[in-house]
Amino acid sequence: MERLLTAAEMRETEKAAMESGETSGRHLMERAGEGAVAAILSEWPDLADGPHRAAVLCGPGNNGGDGFVVARLLADRGWTVEVYLYGDPDRVAGDARANLEAWTARHPLQPMEQAAGATPPNLLIDAMFGIGVSRPIPDLCMQAWHALAASDAPSGPPGRTVALDCPSGFDVDRGGYFLPEPEGNDPAAWRLLPDLCVTFHAAKQGLFLEEAARRAPRVVAIGLAEDAAATAAATRVLSGDAAEQRAWYRRVTGGEEHLHKYDRGHALVLGGGPGKGGAARMAARAALRAGAGLVTVAVPRDALPENAAQLNAIMLSAMDTPDDLDRLLEDGRLSVVCLGPGLGVSARTRELVGSALDSGRRVVLDADALTSFREAPDTLFEMLNGDCVLTPHEGEFARLFPDLAERGRSLSKVDAARQAAARCGAVVLLKGAATVIADPEGTVGVHAALYDRRVPQLATAGAGDVLAGFITGLCAAPGRDTRAVTELAAWLHAESARTFGPGLIAEDLPDELPKVLAGLGA
Ligand SMILES: NC(=O)C1=CN([C@@H]2O[C@H](COP(=O)(O)OP(=O)(O)OC[C@H]3O[C@@H](n4cnc5c(N)ncnc54)[C@H](O)[C@@H]3O)[C@@H](O)[C@H]2O)[C@@H](O)CC1
Ligand SMILES: [K+]
């Protein structure tokens, strides 16, 4: 798990460290520059073998200060380095000023206006704006970047582009870029897309909500201790190596050897009527693969034949009315109920959800089970508890939490999910390329299927039903932490898609899972 910091949390951390005398701003800036150069040379080892040409675009604040340090360190390696500054050098202050002066004592400084006419370098550094920005960057800066990033360098290795801390104008809390309003003809022009982003001390939250660079961000230490000030920070779900993945899997699942199928739990998945059963069957198969000892699909009587024709290891029961569900739930061995996939948007679905929640079981609500409450979300929220999981996509989320969805531009996805979980009293998994998992106590995990973990093949019909099934299967065994298994399910889901590769359809996901579980030492 890796801490994801907002701009405010990062500032608090820096401030606390400087106030305690543990470090100084000047020292942090030097470490940031050193870390950036080291990260660049390890990313592109060919740059280490000789002097090349770099252009460093510097802004007026401390991000610019980092840029002056990088420029000096590269010049010390014999590189030809051009530094372009946005704004008046006399207005650069504090630690950035000290590093600006260290640069101008030995090298020339050019105004940003001249950057666009320069020859593209082998390495272009964006040190214009960092976490101090909350509006689109100036046109001049945007144009300088595109002019120098656009084409390959004429000699030496091709042009590589690197953003320090974050790309300029990137929203480190929400992800995405600040764009001019009205957006004008070419909003894409404000989306700087560097090859690499080197971020300092900790990954910034927005970098894992939307992609900020072509490669995964590199985090470099700058000598700050753990984030004492940032206790509420979100974490990134399973960012570690294979050994950490195995340890995480054992921690979340308990790792115990189950001797009897009932120790692994019995999951009940409710399915739709005739011709509407595929989604529930996929969820059920996913639950069985994810570790439930037994899985039963319960469907209306007239849908029994088609389900019987398609299910083998999964058991089948008839369930027409909420009373039928109550009767099924008299079996104390049923430990978790999954409702939603293919169930239909209706009053009957609302009643079934009520029955499942009344029974005190763990409940996973997806798709139609969520949409059925669009007119009166509070009636759902009143019945929920921390052992329930809601798995909305953005549309379903907007139906249950319209105000939080509407505030999407001002509220990060992390905060939207956190507030939703607090309001409804259940674990909320808000889907997307970045999936956010929040519990009612405010703990948030971000699962980012971005950068080298991108899985575009997961955008396929039925993938959400399988995710609900994975959560259900992992929830079936008693004693597991609901939020933790939900995070694990999100990771297993994307990982199964990743290892399967192209051509994936939803049915493949449960059948790919055993390979992923074997890799985790399950
Ligand atoms: N000593 C420190 O505080 C350290 C800061 N660090 C770096 O400093 C960055 C944060 O520095 P700052 O807080 O100075 O902020 P930034 O350098 O990100 O930018 C803020 C500056 O830009 C101006 N500005 C913001 N938006 C603008 C716009 N659209 N047009 C024109 N001007 C605009 C602000 O008035 C301010 O002068 C971090 O991202 C990191 O790169 C690191 O060096 C670590 C140490
Ligand atoms: K930057």
Automatic annotation (TrEMBL):
<dbReference type="Pfam" id="PF03853">
    <property type="entry name" value="YjeF_N"/>
</dbReference>
<feature type="binding site">
    <location>
        <position position="126"/>
    </location>
    <ligand>
        <name>K(+)</name>
    </ligand>
</feature>
<keyword id="KW-0456">Lyase</keyword>
<keyword id="KW-0520">NAD</keyword>
<dbReference type="GO" id="GO:0110051">
    <property type="term" value="P:metabolite repair"/>
</dbReference>
<feature type="domain" description="YjeF C-terminal">
    <location>
        <begin position="244"/>
        <end position="520"/>
    </location>
</feature>
<dbReference type="GO" id="GO:0046496">
    <property type="term" value="P:nicotinamide nucleotide metabolic process"/>
</dbReference>
<feature type="binding site">
    <location>
        <position position="464"/>
    </location>
    <ligand>
        <name>AMP</name>
    </ligand>
</feature>
<feature type="binding site">
    <location>
        <position position="165"/>
    </location>
    <ligand>
        <name>(6S)-NADPHX</name>
    </ligand>
</feature>
<dbReference type="GO" id="GO:0005524">
    <property type="term" value="F:ATP binding"/>
</dbReference>
<comment type="subunit">
    <text>Homotetramer.</text>
</comment>
<keyword id="KW-0521">NADP</keyword>
<dbReference type="InterPro" id="IPR004443">
    <property type="entry name" value="YjeF_N_dom"/>
</dbReference>
<feature type="binding site">
    <location>
        <begin position="431"/>
        <end position="435"/>
    </location>
    <ligand>
        <name>AMP</name>
    </ligand>
</feature>
<keyword id="KW-0479">Metal-binding</keyword>
<dbReference type="InterPro" id="IPR036652">
    <property type="entry name" value="YjeF_N_dom_sf"/>
</dbReference>
<comment type="function">
    <text>Catalyzes the dehydration of the S-form of NAD(P)HX at the expense of ADP, which is converted to AMP. Together with NAD(P)HX epimerase, which catalyzes the epimerization of the S- and R-forms, the enzyme allows the repair of both epimers of NAD(P)HX, a damaged form of NAD(P)H that is a result of enzymatic or heat-dependent hydration.</text>
</comment>
<feature type="binding site">
    <location>
        <begin position="130"/>
        <end position="136"/>
    </location>
    <ligand>
        <name>(6S)-NADPHX</name>
    </ligand>
</feature>
<feature type="binding site">
    <location>
        <position position="465"/>
    </location>
    <ligand>
        <name>(6S)-NADPHX</name>
    </ligand>
</feature>
<comment type="similarity">
    <text>In the C-terminal section; belongs to the NnrD/CARKD family.</text>
</comment>
<dbReference type="GO" id="GO:0052856">
    <property type="term" value="F:NAD(P)HX epimerase activity"/>
</dbReference>
<dbReference type="InterPro" id="IPR017953">
    <property type="entry name" value="Carbohydrate_kinase_pred_CS"/>
</dbReference>
<keyword id="KW-0547">Nucleotide-binding</keyword>
<dbReference type="InterPro" id="IPR030677">
    <property type="entry name" value="Nnr"/>
</dbReference>
<comment type="similarity">
    <text>Belongs to the NnrE/AIBP family.</text>
</comment>
<dbReference type="GO" id="GO:0052855">
    <property type="term" value="F:ADP-dependent NAD(P)H-hydrate dehydratase activity"/>
</dbReference>
<dbReference type="GO" id="GO:0046872">
    <property type="term" value="F:metal ion binding"/>
</dbReference>
<dbReference type="GO" id="GO:0016301">
    <property type="term" value="F:kinase activity"/>
</dbReference>
<keyword id="KW-0630">Potassium</keyword>
<feature type="binding site">
    <location>
        <begin position="62"/>
        <end position="66"/>
    </location>
    <ligand>
        <name>(6S)-NADPHX</name>
    </ligand>
</feature>
<dbReference type="InterPro" id="IPR029056">
    <property type="entry name" value="Ribokinase-like"/>
</dbReference>
<dbReference type="Pfam" id="PF01256">
    <property type="entry name" value="Carb_kinase"/>
</dbReference>
<feature type="binding site">
    <location>
        <position position="63"/>
    </location>
    <ligand>
        <name>K(+)</name>
    </ligand>
</feature>
<protein>
    <recommendedName>
        <fullName>Bifunctional NAD(P)H-hydrate repair enzyme</fullName>
        <ecNumber>4.2.1.136</ecNumber>
        <ecNumber>5.1.99.6</ecNumber>
    </recommendedName>
</protein>
<keyword id="KW-0067">ATP-binding</keyword>
<comment type="function">
    <text>Catalyzes the epimerization of the S- and R-forms of NAD(P)HX, a damaged form of NAD(P)H that is a result of enzymatic or heat-dependent hydration. This is a prerequisite for the S-specific NAD(P)H-hydrate dehydratase to allow the repair of both epimers of NAD(P)HX.</text>
</comment>
<dbReference type="InterPro" id="IPR000631">
    <property type="entry name" value="CARKD"/>
</dbReference>
<keyword id="KW-0511">Multifunctional enzyme</keyword>
<feature type="binding site">
    <location>
        <position position="279"/>
    </location>
    <ligand>
        <name>(6S)-NADPHX</name>
    </ligand>
</feature>
<keyword id="KW-0808">Transferase</keyword>
<keyword id="KW-0413">Isomerase</keyword>
<feature type="domain" description="YjeF N-terminal">
    <location>
        <begin position="10"/>
        <end position="230"/>
    </location>
</feature>
